[in-house]
Amino acid sequence: MVELPRHYVATFDVGSSVMKGMLIDQTGAISNLYDIELHTYLNDQFVEQDPKEWWKAFLTITNNWFVCGIKPSQIAAITFSGHMQDLITLDENGVPLTNAILYSDNRAYNQAKTIQEKFPEITSLSGNPFDSTSPLAKWLWLKEHEPDVESQTKTLLFGPKDYLIFRLTGQKVVDPTNASTLSLMMLTENNWIVSVLKAFDLDSIKLPNIRQSDEIIGEISHTVSELTGFAEGTLIFCGFGDAGSTSLGAGVIQEHDQYIYLGTTGWVASATSLYNDYKPGHFQLKYFQEDLFLDIASSSNSGNVHSWAVQQFSQGDYRLFEKQIEQTEPGSNGLLFLPYLNGQRSPVPDPHATGAFIGLTKKTTTKHMCRAVLEGLCFSFKQLIDLKSPHPPHSQIFYMIGGGTKSASWCQVMADVCHIMIKVPENAQYLPALGAAASPFIKLGWESSYEAFAENILSKRKSITYYPNLAAQSIYEKSYEHFKKIYPAINHLVDVH
């Protein structure tokens, strides 16, 4: 019997709420899409997920492929994208000791304050913001509040993709993009900041190895083949933290390429060859090439706020939410919304920031509140664009990707508020997984370079273009000026510290 040629790269994208699995053939066509919902455990400032659920979701997706007739020999490689800045504790047998502490968890406020007081240079060393979301602060929290767990921890991992790689290969790794966000790595040297760890008696031997995103970490062994169904010898790549894979999926290959991401959280990002001194509100992450960085202005509020509004004002019906927005005019009858329901990262680095409606009157309707939520989110993203480019040119074109792009209203309001042309690629919510496949495509010889991958795979995908509505421009310009005054005016009214 002739063995079938290997036609696919298997790609897994582990988001905050869903794991997506798909197969991508040599032409870039996506097939066999499966989404598995993930559960997040919330308790006050605690935000956690169970790593064992990631593994179960992974096995469910792969089993679906093989049941549906995909031959293991058709899959040449496995690669990953996943959320970053988590804290995952493994014992000496590689078993999780606790739930993973997610990036949006803010329990380590006091520990972050202690570290900043003792090492005020932490931001200049890491090149990135430092606050209670940092895994370094959460590691110190673990040592102080759960010392038995910390002492039993033999390995720390920092993202779900790295846990899946560990389960498949036994290797303990992190990619440079994710490592850049941890406040543990010297950005210019790709080394852990040992001096900070020693000062707080944190053992650097527990840290994983920093491996390049395009590296082959291992192959499927006989034992793992029997467990997962994948063929022995299937290549396993390191992959990317979601910021890196999302950027590649958006076609950010060369310097000054830029895009907007609307996921559970969101950001505005561009590629640059310049390493800058730390700037508040900016992340500078290592990218797929040594001489490229990702310059990212990040928001804690995006799809999570959109979902909240749909639940509150449209009974969970997304189509009804869209209809309500279509039935209102720009400006929401003077109603403004500050979308800081999950604290904020940029331009306000305040994990305790809260949201607000401003301008409620007896004429305010639910429809106005729906539109005001989207306008507030878009005003917040305009702040990120302005932060990165204080004097942006008028005819900018931004690619916009992520699950939020399924909302045509959100896309149009973003174009109107930011006065930019927006292009949304087909299946934009799957582009992080497609971006993660770039490295295997090149290593397998399917494409010659990242530039060729962008030209032959990414640029040929269909897209929808949203043009700014000039009639709404003057309304939004005035509203935006009022919006920028809300946080400074109310941040002292709520003290949750």
From TrEMBL:
User: Hey, what's the signal peptide range on this chain?
Assistant: none
Could you say which protein family the record assigns here? Belongs to the FGGY kinase family.
Q: Which organism is it from?
A: Terrilactibacillus laevilacticus
Query: What's the EC number here?
Result: 2.7.1.-
User: Which GO molecular function, any one, fits this protein according to its record?
Assistant: kinase activity
Query: InterPro entries given for it?
Result: ATPase_NBD, Carb_kinase_FGGY, Carb_kinase_FGGY_CS, FGGY_C, FGGY_Carb_Kinase, FGGY_N
A Pfam family of this chain: FGGY_N
Instruction: Name the PROSITE patterns for this protein.
Output: FGGY_KINASES_2 (PS00445)
Give the residues annotated as coiled coil. none
Q: Which UniProt keywords apply?
A: Kinase, Transferase
* Residue ranges annotated for the Carbohydrate kinase FGGY N-terminal domain, each copy included: 8-249
Which superkingdom does the taxonomy of this entry point to? Bacteria
Residue ranges constituting the Carbohydrate kinase FGGY C-terminal domain according to the UniProt record: 259-438
For this entry, the protein name equals FGGY-family carbohydrate kinase
